[in-house]
Design brief:
172 residues, alpha/beta, 8 helices, globular
Length: 172
């Protein structure tokens, strides 16, 4: 499991209100949320982001409200990974539940620059800045988190487990 893309770098305390402004919370449609992702912080983000691109930020990324709309919007834009020294705990959990890979690595978050090309290996936790040639080590995901992300989130993971067990998940 890997991603490779260009970096969009932001500062500390990027809260869920700038990831997806509250005025757009009347929908949970990923396409509609993606159209407004980061617009109050970086109006050109949605026109520049490409599948696999990586958001790198300072500490406390995803602070603010507990809305899962924020990781949905990032993922729907094509963001392949978010790297920060640390994340607001509820954002961390929501990101995993929505299937958005996030890695905590203070050294990478500090050293990687906006526009750098970066490759991430989620199996090993290795982050390679292909622009600078530097390599960083994040803690790789445990196997169960890799399975959740590979299933496109917790709902997909649970649905897949029902299918494996031979049940449809329908109410009896």
């Amino acid at each position: 499991m890997n991603t490779k893309g260009n970096v969009f770098k932001y500062g500390t305390n990027v809260d869920t209100d700038v990831i997806i402004p509250a005025r757009y919370l009347n929908t949970s449609d990923p396409v509609e949320l993606a159209a407004h992702c980061m617009e109050d912080l970086d109006a050109s983000f949605v026109t520049r982001v490409k599948p696999g691109d990586i958001v790198v930020a300072g500490s406390n990324f995803g602070c603010g409200s507990s809305r899962e709309h924020a990781p949905i919007a990032l993922k729907a834009c094509g963001v392949g990974c978010v790297i920060a020294p640390n994340f607001a705990r509820i954002f961390y959990r929501n990101a995993i539940n929505m299937g958005l890979p996030i890695l905590e690595c203070a050294e990478a978050a500090e050293a990687i620059n906006d526009g750098d090309e970066v490759e991430v290996d989620f199996d090993t936790g290795v982050i390679r800045d292909l622009t600078s040639g530097r390599e960083f080590q994040a803690r790789p995901f445990p196997a169960f988190i890799k399975r959740i992300i590979a299933a496109d989130g917790l709902v997909g993971y649970i649905s897949g487990r029902h299918d494996e067990a031979g049940t449809s998940g329908d109410a009896v």
